[in-house]
Amino acid sequence: MSISNLSRRPLSEQGIKVSFEFFPPKNEKMEQNLHSAVEQLAPLGPEFVSVTYGAGGSTRERTHQTVSHLAQNTDLTPAAHLTCVDATKEEVNEVVREYWKAGVRHFVALRGDPVSGVGGNYRPNPEGYQNAAELVAGLKAFADFDISVSAYPEKHPESPDFATDIDMLKRKVDNGATRAITQFFFDNDTYERYVERVRRAGIYVPIVPGIVPIHNFKAIANFSKTCGTHVPAWLAERFEGLENDPKTTALVASAVAAEQVMDLVERGVEDFHFYTMNRADLVYAICHMLGLRGQNGGNGSSGGNSDRSAA
Ligand code: FAD
After folding, report:
1. What global pTM score does this model have?
2. Is the CB of residue 25 less than 8 Å from the CB of residue 15?
3. For atom 42 of ligand 1, which residue has the closest CA?
4. Domains, the chain
5. Cβ count near 96 (within 10 Å)
6. Are 52 and 82 in contact (CB under 8 A)?
């Protein structure tokens, strides 16, 4: 069944667009998982695939390796996450030069968190980019990169209020960011209200919803606390009693994510960013429901043109 059967809303000419986020693998086994996730998702034709940067810049080399691998061995457009944490401007610029040489033209520019995590103890490096807005300006001064930035429908936990939060988003966009990707959320009304606030503030770039598939409810609920995402009671109830039942959890998670995404489509959203956790199964299923098909008919195999080294 295609999206036109599922949605009452006519789609624009461009139709549904997706992007996928991965994290850099720590060991060989994780590397294999990443390659097979990339191989399965690549035929869906994502706008770009992004690779995260560990807290405190802890994955600098691994992020670079993963992004360069995707740039050189696949037809995908890779985007490198980059933060300001614990680095001078010159150190960050050096990383950017390396990416430029590897053919990377898209960044997800972030302030980032200290290694100790989010929670108000961020100290900018005196010789570094002081925040994400400065980083965006630094990247734009280097080249006309495609730059994505973060957005927080429930506001960032360190922001005193929405006005301060949206002001930061405006500074990032004024400095050249081309789209914002949201922190994950579960309440679509919250997202819609946020987009209205953002538009009222004169920000017109796409605010792409970040969708997280729930592979492990407890882990997501804990993470939600640190990043300020509200977990509605109805969501907790759906996963209640399934702690030791991964099969049913996967089925429920798939239904939950599909409901959220289809409701967003009804509200006019056509652009989605998936936090894949380096797993393709759930994201592939949701994309399939959105009407996206692999080039070989959607059986999940890339036919060899996605991640060549993974073959
Ligand atoms: P900014 O956009 O600069 O700020 C966010 C908000 O926090 C602003 O609205 C501002 O009001 C407030 N704020 C910022 N600094 C201060 C301050 N000093 N005092 C008070 N308020 C302040 N983290 C990683 O480490 N690696 C990643 O790869 C990564 N990828 C991400 C991708 C997405 C799509 C998102 C949404 C988040 C990601 N993060 C990542 C998390 C992000 O680094 C943290 O949320 C971090 O705390 C803020 O970085 P930012 O760029 O969002 O901050």
Report:
1. 0.92
2. no
3. 112
4. 3-289 (3.20.20.220)
5. 20
6. no
Instruction: Give the pLDDT means over successive 10-residue stretches in the chain (311 positions).
Output: 51 86 95 96 97 83 94 96 95 96 97 75 91 98 98 96 98 98 98 98 98 96 95 98 96 96 96 97 94 61 32 27
What is the distance between the alpha carbons of residues 310 and 304, in angstroms, rounded to a whole number? 9
Indicate the top mutation candidate among 85, 110, 118 to test ligand 1's pocket, ranked by most ligand atoms within 8 A of CB.
110
To test ligand 1's pocket by mutation, which of 52, 135, 150 has the most ligand atoms within 8 angstroms of CB?
150
Helix (H) or strand (E) holding 132: helix 132-142
Residue 152 near residue 185, CB atoms below 8 Å: no
- What are the strands, taking DSSP E only, across the chain? 17-22, 49-51, 78-83, 106-110, 146-151, 179-182, 207-208, 210-211, 271-275
Condensed to tens digits (0 to 9), the pLDDT of residues 145-156 reads: 999 999 999 999
Would you say 171 and 231 are in contact if contact means Cβ atoms under 8 Å apart? Answer: no
Query: Beta strand 271-275 with 210-211: parallel, antiparallel or unpaired?
Result: parallel
List, as one string, the DSSP characters of 253-292: HHHHHHHHHHHHHHTT--EEEEE-TT--HHHHHHHHHTT-
pLDDT tens, position by position, 56-104: 767 889 999 999 999 999 999 999 999 999 999 999 999 999 999 999 9
Distance CA 187, CA 138 (A): 34
* Among the listed residues 249, 255, 187, the one whose alpha carbon sits nearest the alpha carbon of residue 216: 249
- Model pLDDT, residue 301: 37
Active site residues: 21
Write out residues with Cβ below 6 Å of ligand 1. Answer: 52-53, 55, 81, 83, 108, 110-113, 118, 122, 131-132, 150, 156, 158-159, 164-165, 168, 181, 183, 210
Q: How many helices (H) and strands (E) does the chain have?
A: 11, 9
